[in-house]
Amino acid sequence: MRITRTRAVAVGLVVLLAAIVGGVVVARQESRPVIAAEPWEAAAPTVLDPMPGGAFRHPGVLVGADDLARVKGEIDGGAEPWASAFAQMAGTRYGNADWRPRPRAVVECGPYSNPDLGCVDEAEDGVAAYTQALLWQVTGDERHARAAIRIIDAWAAVLERHTNVNGPLQSAWSAVPMVRAAELIRYGYDGWDPAPAAAMFREVYLPEVIGGATWTNGNWELIMMEAATGIAVFLDDRASFDRAVDRLRSRIKAYVYLESDGPLPVAPPGETNVPEERLISYWHGQRDLRDGVTQETCRDFGHAGWGLSAASHVAETARLQGVDLWSEIAPRMTAALELHMPYALGEPAPSWLCDGEPDTESYAPLPEAARHHLVDRLGLELPATTAYVRRYRPAEAAYFFAWETVTHGG
């Protein structure tokens, strides 16, 4: 079983990552000189007005109607990078309209997904459902809409819970693409009854992700909040949406360091008076804190990339709902991306960062959504991030991220 990935597999990522790696692994090319990030300057945000009465805009999970129309126009016109990225997506096994889901009532995922009782199956089915929904949106071929519905309905009919240590994260991984697919199908395709899916998201997935995970590595909670915001939009659940966005606000401050935070990183949400040594241990031993270092940088760049990607996805969904979360997280996101990207491109790391030996090879996924907003919409200069994205396009798929060159290329 394989899910395509953007980069080589991170050493130390969960066993599931190794089990479902796939697609084209891009070879590292020549190194690029380090380019310092531009000083942050506030820019006029590009956000949609809130809907009257606090209603949600649909479709409104990661991509909206205007985004879809723009992407379809670019693909139909053969424009790059969209056309090639779409062809790649359509050519994967996730693009096969005959995809057969593999649902089960209880998904058990232990440490490093051992045991794996439905973990790979559920994650892959989520990616497949989202792929089919995107294919339907672009091509209008109803076979893809029916395939997405078949996958979602199969899980909605039987899923009861996720168990064991990785249960909450597994729930988030799978809910993220599954609810994107459900949102795209619900608002545009006639003849689907969304009630069973809504019940699954409300009764199974949402309770498993909305509470967060305070002392796990931060990518867990960021991905969980991505799942929660997507589910809240699908369910028109304003209280859960606000709760998840507020948790994201707190977590991103505890995930990406800025010098304005003081000599120590911000403690995880809800924690106070945390001993210094516990914080440094939680930050994987990194004592020399500079703008853009993340809580997982010295764990490996792969997990740091996951956390930053999830945060960017929440900000995109919030933007579609008239909430300018981007302006709040952009200083940290910009600093983090421009810190990591030169080393992910091959520049030797300095001795102050992770004792000079960070795991830079593992960065994934491509930060297309963040680059698209910060560069294309706001006009900021992120030279290293742009260079990295251009080198390793098109974005591929695994777990909670998929095909962002199609949806957010520029």
Automatic annotation (TrEMBL):
Q: Name one Pfam family in it.
A: Alginate_lyase
Alphabetized InterPro entries for the sequence: Alginate_lyase_dom, Chondroitin_lyas
Q: Which UniProt keywords apply?
A: Lyase, Signal
Q: What are the annotated GO cellular component locations?
A: periplasmic space
Among the GO molecular function terms of this UniProt record, one is: lyase activity
Q: Which residues form a coiled coil?
A: none
Instruction: Describe the location of the Alginate lyase domain by residue ranges.
Output: 127-252
Q: What is this protein called?
A: Alginate lyase domain-containing protein
- Which species is listed as the source? Catenuloplanes indicus
Taxonomic lineage of the native organism: Bacteria, Bacillati, Actinomycetota, Actinomycetes, Micromonosporales
